[in-house]
Amino acid sequence: MIRFDHVFKRYPERGEALGDISFELRVGEMAFLTGHSGAGKSTLLRLIGLLERPSRGQIIVNGRNLGTLRRRQIPFHRRQVGMIFQDHRLLPDRSVFDNVALPLVVAGIGQRDLGRRVRAALDQVGLLKRERATPVALSGGEQQRVGIARAVVGRPPVLLADEPTGNLDPELSREIFELFERFHYVGVTLLIATHDLSLVNSMSHRTLTLHGGRLVKDSGGR
User: What domain count does the chain have?
Assistant: First the structure.
């Protein structure tokens, strides 16, 4: 579950990025976050992942008030929130397997369990046979799938995606969104920032629309 209660985010140099944002996503709900470039989509996702903190307001994720979390509790929170980025952020000198394994290594997962979980995640995204490849040998769509596998390998209950198909053609974009739907069907809560309105409109999921840092529309699902 994700809940925003009158959340504001202001930067000293740029002014207000988000203003008076309130909404709630239920456990296992999948929703899209839309809006023009600079509307505040990335900022909103960063607040959920505790990459930044709000200037005012309250954010609840999985029953935890993020404003009350101490510094030492932040790594645990981030392991509960998988994040997918448009630019993949893969390590170019590491194999697909090693890139996906990284969150588990950081979490101190044992080698035997690590291998099983990495291969399960790669199987979910259709890349099990590419585990020894390096990112440079992959297509853009395959690189994005590696990024998704890395985000889900820790089995987080919440998954965030920031323009995950921005560099992909329509067919590959559809495949990535269908992959997100499979995670949704097994109970993962997903919030996906995207500018691909044609794809959003073709899918029956809730849409939150930002404009100028304000929530101007909430479809509430169909």
Answer: 1
